[in-house]
Amino acid sequence: MIKQTFRHFALLMAGLGLMLGASDSLAQAKLLGPLAPQRNGRTVEGSPAGQRQVPDSATVGNFGLIDFPGSPDSAVYFINDKGEMAGGYGAELAAGNLSNSGFLLTKDTFKNVNFPGSAETAATLVTNAGDIAGSYVDSAGNEHGFQLVKGAYTSLDVPGAILTEVNGGSAWGEIVGLYNNPTGGDHGFFFTGGTFTTIDVPGASATFANAANKSGEVVGGYYDAAGVGHGFTWVRGVITTIDYPGAPYTVLWGINDAGVIVGSYGDGNGFYGGYENGFVLSGGTYLAANVPFVGVGATWIMSINNSNQVAGNYQDTAAMEYGFTATFVP
Fold this sequence. Notes:
By secondary structure, this protein is mainly beta. It has one helix at 7-12; strands at residues 24-25, 59-66, 74-79, 85-89, 101-106, 109-113, 120-126, 132-137, 143-149, 152-156, 163-169, 175-180, 186-192, 195-199, 206-212, 218-223, 229-235, 238-242, 250-255, 261-265, 277-282, 285-288, 296-304, 309-316, 321-329. Strand 17 (229-235) and strand 18 (238-242) form a beta hairpin.
């Protein structure tokens, strides 16, 4: 999740990616029909997905809308244990690029996140300590990762890479993403303690890391030699492929410290890029979970915290993109 920035992130989400600026209150909900978000953008009353239909069965419910004020498109990429969210907004999202601007959402207050002098910025990680990481495009059109720590921005580039993209990490400060080197090929990376570790799925044409947890387990996605997308986990060099049962395409977006994974899978409908449905993987059991608002065409669950709050993005049938929150109940 195209052009040469935020490429695989945008591909997988089918068109979904200075200083903390002045804050805005949460925008009014864009009403989508009779089952529409409340104005506060937090919950949906009467959501069928929010009702536990079988005692002791897992479910995802309590859906709420995240919509940056005045923006045509919004996206949420990460939620930390305090419920703070990192994301992006602006028309560039619909073009499959980085967002025009990144944001941090704390309670009901947005703050802009823009790398100084950048053409595009997306915030894809906010730690429990409040540090932010993400990606930006410079004035020459080159993509870099960045960190924002105690008000100071620094670039984050894999040594020797011609492109570095930060896709996420953990709430404790580990950072993951992908990079492209001069000889070609996309490689995942894991960054902790000042050290980059490359992650390559054997035989893959491209590998990208999307999230990590406190124990250093990394999740992400890769394309095999036939161009088919799969999810994977990486634990200290050991890689395991994860595919949603019966689905033609799978990608893993997030993981919490308990090992609960969130991701997307395809149902064969290529209109949304092959990854139209969200899911949660907990204790070896898969739970499909899509935003229940009227007019939703695709759901991407991007992150899950240690309270089992999830966050992500969805696209409606009018090709508008929105962020959302929900709760996973095991």
